[in-house]
Amino acid sequence: MRVAPKPPRSITSQATEDLTFIRSTMERSSTFTSVPGLGGVGVGVIALIAATVGARQPTADRWLVTWLGAAAAAAAVELVAMTRKAHRAGMSLTGTAARRFALGMAAPLVAGAAITYALWAVRSFTVMTPVWLLLYGAGVLTGGMFSVPVVRAIGVCFMTAGIAAILTPPAWANVWLALGFGGLHIGFGAYIARHHGG
Description:
single chain; mainly alpha; 7 helices; elongated
C-alpha cells in the first residue's frame, strides 16, 4: 500500500516560523537573565545580620561602618553568584544586555555613595536609610529594564520601602534596612532561584 506524500510546506509558513525563531532569539539576547536568586538570598542573610549588629552599635559611626562592611560583603557574594549563574547558562557578563544592566545599576549606586559621604561629613545619619533604599531601588528598577520583569518589581518594592522610611521615625532605620535589604532580597531571591534558573 502506497503512502501519500506529505504536501510541501508553503513558503509563507516557513518564513513565519523563521521570523518567530529570530524574534525569540533576539529577545533572549537583549535580556540579562543572570540575576542570581541564590545570591540574593545570601545578600538578604548578610543584611539581617547587619541589622542585628547595627542596632547594638553605641555610635552612629560604628553603625555606618557595620552597614558599609555588609554592603561590601553583599557585593562580593552577588558578583560571585552572578558569575556562576552566567557560566552555567553559557552567557557572558560582558555582553550588551549585561553592560546595559550594569550601567543602569551604576549611576544610582554611585550617587548613593556620594550622598552617604556628604551626609556623614555633616553628621546627618538619619537620612541615610531612605537614601540607600530609594537609590538602590532606582538602580534595580533601571537595570531591570534589561532583565526579567521580577527585577523591576524588586526595584519598585525597594523604592516603596524608602518612602516608608521617610514617613516613619528615624529609630526605625534598622527595621527598614532589615525589611528591604534582608526581607526583599530573600523573598525575591527565592522566587528567582525557583523560576529563573538559580
